[in-house]
Amino acid sequence: MTALRVWPLVVACSLLHVGCRLEPVSKSSSQSPREGDSPGDAANDGAPAMPVPPVDGPAARPQGQPEDKSSGGTLSLAGLRASRTSCVSPCSVMFSIDAIEDAADPNPFAHSGVYWDYGDAQADARDGLIERGATHRQTGRGVSRQSDTNTPVGMHTYVCESGTCRFHPGVTVQNAAGDWVTAWSTVEVRAQSTAYPKTRTVCVSATGQWGGDDPCPADASRARSLPTMGNWRSDTRYLLRRGERFDVRRSCIAYGRRGITITGFGNATDPKPELGMFGVGRGRSCADPTTTDRDIASYRVPHWIEDVTLADLRVAAVGLGMAFKNVTLHDLDMDFERQAEGGVIFSAATRRCRRDDQLSCGRVPLPYGLYVSGSTVIGSRTKPPGVNIAMVDDACVSFFGILDSEVRLAAEHNVRVECSSRLLVAHSDINAGHIGGKGRKCAVTIRPEGSLAQDMLLGRRKDAKTRAEMFESRYTVLKDLYLSNPKREGENSARLQIAPTQARDAEVTRFGVVSGNYVDMQGTGPFADARLAGTGLVCYDDNRWESQTGCTDGPRGAIPSGGFEPSEVDFPAPAVPKPPSTY
User: Fold this and answer.
1) How many Å apart are CA 179 and CA 501, to the nearest integer?
2) Has residue 432 got a pLDDT over 90?
3) Which of 16, 343, 362, 433 is the most exposed place for a label (fewest CB within 10 A)?
4) Pairing of strands 413-418, 387-391
């Protein structure tokens, strides 16, 4: 493969280089978290009037959606929150019970037993069991895609082959006293052939081959190359010929687009269509994700770029813009271990507005909805990425999920997320391989970036350019991960970390669960298997740690008052309730 040229990314650290360095930023904050802020709170603190996406309650129940039920008692759930309820196949959706309240428990988000029924009875037969993660490694049995347990944040990828498919996902939540509630939602998924009629389908083949067992649809448009940055059409499907390579160096989609699916056609047995470094959201060029206030006025898309899906492709790197909404990365081959470089998913710096007079921070939407499922992300040995999956530099993304994936081989961390809300990393292999002389690093690092006690789903302040703009992180779940270092490469510190990076950082993480994980890294050093520092953070006793250190509570350091309490490092895993359909 032709060597890939590194993008001159306008971010604080070049994630495709060994010498990745996070830019130092002042950690002072004028806003501390409120004492007693509960999971159901969403303090506005002067933010613009932008409501949190509502939970799906019983008021306007779609046809066929079961009724929400409750046993009574102290437990209540206002409804099931879904990241989206209408989309195009393949469609990943995240769910959260963050609206849970319990008069007898200050932290029902982490203490309650949970049973998810994703409402997709054909998922296991269609896609097979998930054969990644701790459960599979320890038992040899896969994990069902149709249901999940003891994770207050869930995720599922829906597939619809024809027409419009309607699914009814539901959840049961139960407290220690046996009180229970059920809640349901409805997700409508359109097949690609329904969402994109022939006039909205473009087949691309450099060799001009349009047939095969999965041919280019009749009457679809045909092209010999990918569109240039500004010529991608909204509400359009692009089918790339399998077995071919497209713009191997780099290509990208400009801001101002929505509703784009990129996948393959041709012979199913041919290799996936191959892209180089692909940008989702660019303002000035494929190498530059920044933009200006003047350009924003022309986008006509609230989050600048929305509803973009890359599926069934081979991609060296995916670079996300400063803002986006609902980007799906499904069934991607990003294994570039033996290539010149690659194996990285990263976001641009959302905080660049603070040092750019042409861009107002109040005009930069907070990212929302990034779904990585069924994918392999392995870095290059020649030029390892700093981080394989990196949402850094104040990403502040809500609804970020990594499901049924393998992540390995980086100079520093395998997964690093800075500032997040409703984050799930689940049923995946995080196989370390930290090479490049960067020292003791983590497999999964989830860190906050500030202490503003506001649910970031409310959006950002219109006039903020201060550190107080940085939100506390909320609702983090690390579930059923298998963490290994097969070749005993490099050193590792805390394998899982939900905490500020340094003791002097005045940053807050609120409400999180570490459950059912298996650390299998013997020989790489006696460091903590999991380290937590925040408030409402819990390790269940169903994790399997490699060392006596296990799950530890990190020091408070500079975490503000009301943002720190000792973590529960060996909390008994809650009893799993029955499926919601049985009540």
Assistant:
1) 38
2) no
3) 362
4) parallel
